[in-house]
Write a structure and sequence with these properties.
Length: 276
């Protein structure tokens, strides 16, 4: 009931049911049970929404202390509770205290990200969630450059995840399943978000070209390889191994299928063979 009323901004009406729910959980589950702490946090949020900022701060503080004891200082629920205290301090005009609390949250979230990258890897869903949460916190604090850098790291990691999925299909010779994933990854994600000259974009383009070739879409293969080879030569230099590999593959495929330069110019305007 309290959650329903709160969702529809009936914060005053939600206060009493939330308080009753909290007290019942204290009696049945104990003060330190996760569900009890969740209910306590709801009461604190509603107190703040109803303008009872001092009571809300006291309740939020209890939630933080309990969650640190039960879950640890760097658990997402603990950090969320600290965020709630920060908001309450802001609403009271206690900006210096709020800033200190925000710094504490950022430092903790950074430690979480570093630990999850080390233990789980950069592409693990929990790591990406932690990175996204840190980026959002930095954005909310007005640290837009830092937030942008973190959001970019998240996007790059997600694009690599999609590329890995397509590669898994490719290695199983499931080319028709790999191809639409790769087309979307190249055109909707890599080129649009990272830019067509980003090295990850070029890697995705070459991977898509291989899939085009395996599915006998030779025109699209050569058009894609030509674009990637030209970009790699410009960005990395014509003597770079990746640039030379792309140029050699382009030359071989052109020769194999006897396509002249006029054919290639016409092909580059045909677009992808699958809508995206």
């Amino acid at each position: 009931m309290a959650h329903y009323l709160s969702e529809y901004n009936h914060h005053r009406d939600a206060q009493a049911p939330a308080q009753r729910s909290f007290m019942i959980r204290v009696k049945l589950l104990g003060e330190e049970h996760v569900d009890t702490l969740q209910a306590m946090g709801t009461v604190a949020v509603l107190l703040s929404s109803n303008g009872k900022l001092k009571e809300a701060e006291e309740m939020h503080t209890k939630v933080v202390e309990a969650r640190i004891g039960v879950l640890g200082e760097e658990h997402p629920d603990t950090l969320k509770a600290i965020d709630n205290i920060t908001t309450t301090l802001h609403n009271q005009g206690r900006l210096k205290e709020a800033e200190k609390m925000e710094t504490k949250v950022v430092e903790a979230k950074m430690r979480v990200v570093e630990a999850q990258i080390r233990v789980l890897g950069e592409q693990h869903p929990d790591t990406l969630t932690a990175m996204h949460n840190l980026a959002r916190t930095l954005r909310d604090q007005g640290r837009l450059k830092d937030a942008q850098e973190m959001y970019t790291m998240v996007v790059e990691a997600r694009i690599r995840c999609i590329g890995d999925l397509a590669l898994a299909f490719h290695k199983q010779a499931r080319f028709e399943e790999a191809m639409p994933i790769q087309i979307k990854n190249v055109h909707n994600s890599s080129k649009r978000v990272l830019g067509k000259e980003h090295l990850d974009t070029l890697k995705c383009m070459c991977s898509l070209a291989n899939t085009y070739y395996e599915t006998n879409h030779i025109n699209e293969t050569i058009a894609m390889v030509e674009e990637a080879a030209t970009l790699r030569s410009r960005i990395l230099g014509s003597e770079h191994p990746h640039a030379k590999d792309s140029m050699e593959a382009l030359s071989e495929w052109k020769e194999e299928h006897e396509l002249d330069e006029m054919d290639i110019d016409n092909l580059t305007n045909t677009g992808p063979i699958i809508e995206f």
